[in-house]
């Protein structure tokens, strides 16, 4: 595993991030958007880990932990909102209908 | 080729991620997401971060995904939802986001290429949980506190949002369509 | 004691004005008049006391000073509110308070049944106070306060009967035209203040006398002259005075004949070393005086309104004073100022008495034959007319005009000839007016009587108009030189007198004028219609200066204003506002409220930022 390059890991992070963003942009279902955001968060976490490996520092994993807790909180709140929307009469979870902030 | 696991895991992760964003059934997407997380855990392991890999599996693929599963179960999705997803994912919808994402990918790759090349010679020795733990409770104890606060806030807001107003009588009349 | 009296003379009418304005018209006419006329009378009394004290024991420096307070004190500039009583301001003070008191008394008889009498007396007393400030000031800045004060009082009183739009228009015209001069005066003051570093009159005059005149001194002299020209209704800013007759007659007598319009003369006399050091300004003063004197006399010859005749006559007589100033005959100018105040106030008040008796008609061709109906007024008017015409030996006007003619002769014989021509015309137009009004067939039956409060001032002024000139006589008649001696510390020795035939010419020309007037308008062959040829019409309209200014200034200005009706200059700011609004609307369209759209913008922004960051 000594030949594993952090640059390659960063490339993977980039690809994952882009795929996640594609999901956020293309999907209309809030649940699927939330999943795409999870992918993006993981891509960011991967970037930290790769950077930590590059400089052989444990700080990358510390930041990974931060992202982990962030993702957990985000998932909790986001899923609560989804449940609430569903209960309040929007079973389709269409992100495009929630546009009351229209300027 | 000692980085074969890394490449394998990487390919699996990328493929599974693509599957996640293109599924029309939420449970399928969720399962692919678990695959993504598991393969990412493998990648972490290959990068010499076993602690992070374990946490990824336990917390992410375990706890967080269970949350998602519960929610999917509660949404009680069926055939109509699947048809609607199909309808929403007409090919025309994908053009713009793909273009934008492709652009971002190209830009990021160009940035990566511009980075100074790594030496590549030094080995990626694993960084164990001990080192991370000492660091967490040493100089980064404040960030641990912040993380705990963040989780607490998430907990409280999840409780608040998810509260059943019809049961308590608050906003009983206007609860529908008000969120 | 004397220095204390000086501010009191000003404070007395000022207080009365405040009291009258604050009474808001709730005071009955009699107390109003008592306060108004009484305060000016009190000032006149104090002025007389001060004058006797001054003449008996002249103060050591030749002038009394009373510094009230320091107005502003900054680096390199220092202004005090200070009053000075020197021979010149002594003479002016006596004229303003004395004639002012008589006119106030007369005004009660004239105005006592007017509902706005409190306002009238308030303005009149305020005017007297402002005029006294103007006269007493030893600093040009406080003089300017008085200058503007008399201007605003003039405006208020011309438009006193403000329900008639013509009166308001006349008031506005007077205000605006004099404002042009006031602006010039202010510019002159600022120039003097920046160049000389002070506006203290003695200091300024010291500088003017010791330092050769440079460009700034010349410019300042001309700017001050502009102010004087507008205030004294001289060509080319004379157009407001005939229209100012829209005010009540006592106002015309006090402000537009006796005092305010002579402020320009006073200003030039006060600053005479400054003007004397700029020959071009002196020439300008002379020419302005001569031109005004002849043009106004020509206009007065064909007027039909009795007050307008007197207004043009006033312009003409002030033209004499300017002529004297330009010729360097300072004493003559001040002497004529004094006698003119007497006889012109008398003429206006007599005219007012006539107007009251003939149902407020002012057209002389509608009067006629009034000598028998109102003999007292006739005698008063005759005295005033004789003084104005300068009938020899008996009248005050003769001596003062003679002195001006002498001064003009010394400056240039051509000026003398012009002034003599003016004297000839003066005699013709005032006796034309007299013959038409008082002789011939009667066209309007007079009613009522001229009250005692009106008759008394008329009598006083008639006596003054006849005898007031005896304080200064040519040597050929009697060696009396009271005024010249009084003023000599200020103006230096008077000019030597010319040959005696000048005196003869000056005596005979007015008589000839009266003779011509008798031939043309004597009762039997009196023509009952004013001349109607083109020249007469032109002269009656004041040589059409109004039309000229309309074409040259007002029409272009109005056209410009009409062009700018849509606010061209506002277009720029309006366009800015419209652009901002359109931009805001466009940006607002971006706020679609859709999360995915926002995410797309964020992604696009990220791409752009990365491209920008990766460029080098």
From TrEMBL, chain A:
Example GO molecular function: quinone binding
Keyword flag Kinase: no
One Gene Ontology biological process: ATP synthesis coupled electron transport
InterPro entries per the UniProt record, alphabetical: NADH_UbQ_OxRdtase_chain4L/K (IPR001133), NUOK/Mnh_C1-like (IPR039428)
Principal localisation: membrane
NCBIfam families listed in its UniProt record: PRK05715.1-1, PRK05715.1-2
Protein name: NADH-quinone oxidoreductase subunit K
Source organism (scientific name): Gluconacetobacter takamatsuzukensis
Species lineage: Bacteria, Pseudomonadati, Pseudomonadota, Alphaproteobacteria, Acetobacterales
From TrEMBL, chain B:
UniProt function note: NDH-1 shuttles electrons from NADH, via FMN and iron-sulfur (Fe-S) centers, to quinones in the respiratory chain. Couples the redox reaction to proton translocation (for every two electrons transferred, four hydrogen ions are translocated across the cytoplasmic membrane), and thus conserves the redox energy in a proton gradient.
Similarity field: Belongs to the complex I subunit 6 family.
UniProt xrefs under InterPro entries: NADH_UbQ/plastoQ_OxRdtase_su6 (IPR001457), Nuo/plastoQ_OxRdtase_6_NuoJ (IPR042106)
Source species taxonomy: Bacteria, Pseudomonadati, Pseudomonadota, Alphaproteobacteria, Acetobacterales
Gene name as annotated: nuoJ
Spans through the membrane: 6-22, 29-51, 57-77, 89-114, 134-156
Protein EC: 7.1.1.-
Principal place of residence: membrane
Name by which UniProt lists this protein: NADH-quinone oxidoreductase subunit J
Superkingdom, natural source: Bacteria
Organism field: Gluconacetobacter takamatsuzukensis
Description of how the protein assembles with itself and partners: Composed of 13 different subunits. Subunits NuoA, H, J, K, L, M, N constitute the membrane sector of the complex.
From TrEMBL, chain C:
Record flagged with keyword Nuclease: no
MF term (GO), any: NADH dehydrogenase activity
Keywords of the record: Membrane, Transmembrane, Transmembrane helix
Keyword presence, Transmembrane helix: yes
GO biological process, one term: electron transport coupled proton transport
NADH-Ubiquinone oxidoreductase (complex I) chain 5 N-terminal domain sequence ranges: 71-121
Spans traversing the lipid bilayer: 35-55, 90-111, 117-136, 143-162, 174-193, 275-297, 309-327, 333-356, 377-399, 414-439, 451-471, 501-521
GO cellular-component term (any): endomembrane system
Ranges of residues in domain NADH:quinone oxidoreductase/Mrp antiporter transmembrane: 137-419
Pfam families: Proton_antipo_M, Proton_antipo_N
Membrane topology listed for this record: Multi-pass membrane protein
Localisation: Endomembrane system; Membrane
The name this protein goes by in its record: NADH-quinone oxidoreductase subunit L
Primary gene name: nuoL
